[in-house]
């Protein structure tokens, strides 16, 4: 087993390069199946979620290289759609459900065990099913396995009842080869949805409007291989922005799209942190002393990302006054707060709202990662706490942060990955 050991108190100074976006990679890698021939994907993050989606693709017959210098080559020539993707593969990776849209769109059928992933409350897939059915597919979810099939998919109008990243992506995937025009209304607008659309178009698809609430897809009969570079990871960048703000120092975060970070930048500025935007960088300058208290409410893009909520709440633990954090996407995403309380945080949770009253200092404690972003929050807490913090269950952090130890050590953090024997 492995854990992180962090000695808090160091200021952070220097540069951090951001890797390719996890959430884009997890949609783009399975979507490469549409090419019918090899695709070269660049700027792929070397994280365990990418290893898992690659494993699933290999299971159904694709050849997938291991990421080397961020490059992954996917050859889908021998993919078979009649192989069930079992729950031992899907329970660890929510994005496994994108194989439903891809295999349905490419071969007319798919069989995928209900997906798992981080637990922040009930995670329904009714909107995905609604989209598949609108395109003419039959869907069956008996025995916790989703089976979709259709002899022919036809373009259709799909109105999503909730703004869902996953359902928007699955609807796009299922529609790229459907006959005629598909219009997805109330679509999610996250940067990785735009990235997926750009990738699909590079393979010959006709997807327009991604990044707005209405996405129009004209089905094409044939697609082809391409070379494509994934966008930088918005949440990885945001995590290091907040880490620098909390620990104090002067950190330049490179290889980012500042526009994607605006909601995070604005909140940091509300807290009195200096953020200087470059063309492809953001620089964070902070004295690490009690940021101003503020109010944060999560919402779909371009709102404040739910995936940044635990990290930002951690910054507010040492805020000057009482902050309010409202989680408006998920109904159970405050579980990590118990861990922060162990480190001395003063937080009251009432339904979807956390009231955080800043304390002078957090203190070290043995904590664990409850999920990927909660784990990132524990790292930030460890960086600002007095003494030595240990974080267990770090495999959840490894799902989404490439070279976290190397990146933080390079800017002066005292953090190490330590092996230990389970008792
Ligand atoms: C969501 C986040 C995404 C984040 C990810 C992991 C939003 C809009 N989405 O994406 O930014 O990276 O969690 O933290 O912020 N829903 C339904 N029916 C469905 C699908 C979803 O009711 O069929 C609901 C969910 O319960 C949730 C909301 O829609 O309340 C957003 O879900 P969705 O965007 O699909 O989740 P992810 O794609 O996992």
């Amino acid at each position: 087993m492995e854990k992180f050991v962090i000695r808090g108190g160091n200021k952070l100074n220097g540069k951090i390069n951001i890797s390719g976006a996890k959430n884009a990679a997890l949609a783009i890698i399975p979507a490469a199946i549409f090419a019918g021939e090899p695709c070269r994907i660049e700027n792929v993050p070397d994280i365990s979620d990418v290893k898992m989606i690659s494993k699933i693709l290999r299971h159904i017959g694709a050849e997938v290289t291991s990421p080397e210098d961020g490059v992954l080559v996917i050859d889908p020539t021998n993919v078979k759609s009649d192989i069930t993707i079992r729950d031992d593969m899907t329970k660890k990776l929510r994005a496994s459900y994108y194989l439903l849209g891809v295999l349905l769109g490419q071969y007319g059928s798919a069989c995928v065990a209900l997906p798992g992933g981080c637990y922040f409350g009930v995670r329904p897939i009714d909107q995905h099913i609604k989209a598949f059915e609108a395109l003419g597919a039959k869907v069956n979810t008996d025995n916790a396995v989703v089976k979709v099939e259709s002899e022919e998919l036809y373009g259709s109008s799909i109105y999503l009842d909730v703004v869902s990243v996953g359902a928007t992506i699955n609807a796009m995937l299922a529609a790229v080869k459907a006959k005629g025009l598909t219009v997805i209304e109330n679509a999610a607008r996250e940067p990785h949805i735009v990235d997926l659309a750009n990738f699909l178009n590079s393979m010959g698809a006709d997807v327009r409007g991604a990044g707005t609430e209405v996405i129009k897809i004209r089905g094409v009969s044939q697609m082809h291989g391409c070379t494509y570079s994934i966008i930088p990871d918005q949440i990885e960048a945001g995590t290091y922005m907040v880490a620098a703000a909390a620990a104090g120092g002067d950190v330049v975060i490179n290889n980012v799209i500042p526009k994607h970070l605006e909601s995070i930048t604005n909140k940091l500025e509300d807290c009195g942190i200096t953020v200087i935007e470059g063309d492809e960088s953001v620089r964070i300058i902070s004295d690490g002393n009690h940021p101003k208290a503020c109010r944060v409410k999560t919402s779909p893009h371009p709102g404040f990302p739910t995936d940044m909520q635990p990290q930002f709440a951690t910054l507010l633990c040492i805020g000057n006054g009482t902050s309010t954090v409202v989680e408006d996407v998920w109904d159970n995403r405050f579980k990590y707060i118990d861990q922060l309380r162990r480190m001395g945080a003063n937080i009251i949770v009432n339904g979807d709202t956390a009231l955080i009253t800043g304390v002078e200092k957090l203190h070290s404690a043995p904590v664990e990662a409850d999920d990927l972003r909660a784990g990132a929050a524990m790292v930030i807490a460890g960086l600002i706490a007095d003494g030595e913090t240990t974080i267990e269950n770090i495999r959840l952090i490894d799902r989404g942060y490439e070279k976290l130890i190397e990146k933080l050590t390079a800017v002066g953090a005292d953090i190490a990955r330590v092996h230990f024997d389970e008792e």
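The longest helix spans residues 234-247. The two ends are 10 Å apart (CA to CA).
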